């Protein structure tokens, strides 16, 4: 087989052919077909193959090849025609589906637009009704407005007058507040200047005469021995020479805020009431002088008592409520335990810091344990605005170290020590309201700083005894009597005079 025609049948077969009746050229076993490679007995000629005039070799299909080819072409043409018709029908169906979808979407849009139009119509109708109501209201107000012009002018004049009056009252209030601030400052200045003077000093070493011929070392040793005492199993100095001390009236407090000398002496000496240290007669004076000169606990207690009195009176003048309550007599004894003493001192320092805070002091510049130093800064116009009435500023607060130093002793103490929170001792005696004013008396000067106060007390007592004996018995422990008695006892206990 060399070539195959377009119809599918082979064109050249290299097979010899002759007369059909001549069987001499054909072998009995047959020949191999070059097309299907099988042995065949019968073969077709070239013209039959070229024309397709042959049947299947198995003879079970009687249709010729040319007929099959023609039928195949017809089926192929019919299939192509049917395919074209199907494509056209599918195209038309697709277009119809698209049109139906678009129609449905348009119908939904039309329905939504109709609903929106109905909603808009309802809103327009509501707004028209509101417009009519507003129009009617404006028309009625336009009719009534001319009738209210007079009232409007009267009310406007009244408001302007009240604004002017408010401005005048504000100026008057500012002026009164300034006067009140100045009055408070004057009262506190007089209180600190005449009754509770506070000063600062540096203790110097006592000098000994060198006329006895002793050496300088011996004098220094004797000086140190006179200022040394055996307390709690160790030798300690009775005072700190060369250190800054803050003096209130006469007793002084250490400038470093360390009041441990009170606890040291309270543990080795019997409990003593500072207010009765001074006795009667020469023996009592000598004993009180010896105690006052040798016991620093009395000095610290007296200074703290003066300080607590000063703080209470300053709060009375400044109209300030302190966070912690303290009685004047809290420090008038050496019977306090170390925890009780530290707690009361911490409460006093906390009250002073609160007082400084209310008077616009910078808390970060204060030292919580320096009692009198903080009061001096409170009295200094460059550090505080004494007598202020404005709201407190929260920008200046204690740092963590100072806060811990202040609060570490506030919660210390025994359970019984908390009684002073609500049960303060009666430091003020109720004075009868029917007492007449005292008659003027002549005051005589005295040599001591408290001479005027003592003479005034004696004159008041004499006048009260002569005119109102019954009322004087009820007022024996009044404010002036208590204060003068306390000051006198402290002065005697500290100086021995």
Automatic annotation (TrEMBL):
Provide a Gene Ontology MF annotation, just one.
Answer: protein-membrane adaptor activity
Q: Which PANTHER family match?
A: BECLIN 1-ASSOCIATED AUTOPHAGY-RELATED KEY REGULATOR (PTHR13664)
Official protein name in the record: Uncharacterized protein
Entry keywords, A to Z = Coiled coil
Q: Which gene encodes it?
A: 6037201
Q: Which domain of life is it from?
A: Eukaryota
The coiled-coil regions, if any, are 163-193
A GO BP term, please? autophagosome assembly
Q: What organism does this protein naturally occur in? A: Culex quinquefasciatus (Southern house mosquito)
Keyword RNA-binding in record: no
Q: Name one GO cellular component term.
A: extrinsic component of phagophore assembly site membrane
């Amino acid at each position: 087989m060399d070539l195959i025609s377009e119809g599918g049948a082979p064109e050249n077969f290299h097979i010899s052919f002759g007369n059909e009746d001549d069987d001499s050229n054909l072998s009995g076993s047959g020949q191999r077909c070059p097309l299907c490679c099988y042995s065949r007995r019968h073969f077709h000629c070239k013209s039959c193959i070229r024309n397709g005039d042959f049947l299947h070799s198995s003879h079970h299909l009687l249709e010729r090849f040319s007929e099959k080819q023609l039928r195949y072409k017809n089926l192929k043409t019919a299939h192509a025609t049917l395919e074209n018709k199907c494509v056209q029908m599918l195209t038309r169906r697709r277009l119809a589906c698209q049109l139906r979808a678009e129609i449905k979407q348009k119908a939904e849009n039309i329905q939504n637009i109709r609903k929106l139009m109905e909603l808009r119509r309802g809103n327009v109708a509501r707004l028209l009704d509101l417009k009519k109501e507003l129009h009617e209201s404006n028309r009625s107000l336009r009719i009534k407005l001319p009738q209210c012009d007079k009232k409007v002018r009267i009310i406007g004049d009244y408001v302007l007058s009240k604004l002017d009056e408010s401005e005048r009252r504000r100026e008057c209030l500012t002026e009164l507040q300034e006067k009140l601030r100045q009055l408070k400052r004057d009262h506190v200045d007089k209180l600190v200047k005449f009754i509770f003077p506070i000063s600062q000093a540096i203790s110097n070493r006592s000098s000994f005469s060198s006329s006895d011929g002793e050496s300088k070392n011996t004098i220094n040793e004797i000086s140190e021995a006179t200022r040394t005492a055996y307390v709690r199993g160790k030798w300690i100095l009775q005072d700190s020479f060369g250190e800054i001390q803050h003096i209130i009236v006469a007793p002084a407090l250490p400038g470093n805020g360390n009041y441990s000398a009170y606890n040291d002496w309270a543990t080795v000496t019997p409990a003593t009431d500072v207010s009765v240290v001074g006795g009667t007669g020469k023996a009592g004076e000598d004993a009180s002088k010896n105690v006052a000169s040798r016991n620093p606990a009395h000095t610290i207690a007296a200074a703290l008592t003066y300080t607590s009195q000063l703080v209470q009176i300053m709060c009375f003048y400044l109209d300030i409520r302190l966070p912690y309550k303290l009685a004047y007599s809290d420090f008038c004894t050496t019977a306090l335990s170390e925890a009780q003493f530290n707690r009361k001192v911490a409460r006093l320092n906390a009250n002073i810091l609160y007082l400084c805070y209310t008077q616009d002091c910078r808390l970060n510049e204060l030292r919580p344990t320096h009692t009198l130093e903080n009061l001096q800064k409170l009295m200094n116009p460059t550090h505080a605005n004494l007598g202020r009435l404005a709201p407190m500023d929260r920008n200046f607060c204690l740092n963590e170290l100072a806060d811990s130093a202040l609060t570490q002793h506030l919660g210390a103490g025994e359970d019984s020590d908390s009684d002073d929170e609500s049960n303060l001792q009666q430091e003020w005696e109720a004075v009868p309201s029917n007492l007449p004013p005292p008659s003027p008396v002549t005051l005589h000067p005295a040599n001591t700083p408290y001479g005027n106060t003592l003479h005034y007390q004696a004159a008041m007592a004499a006048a009260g005894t002569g005119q109102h004996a019954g009322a004087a018995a009820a007022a024996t422990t009044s404010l002036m009597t208590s204060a003068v008695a306390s000051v006198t006892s402290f002065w005697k206990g500290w100086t021995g005079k």
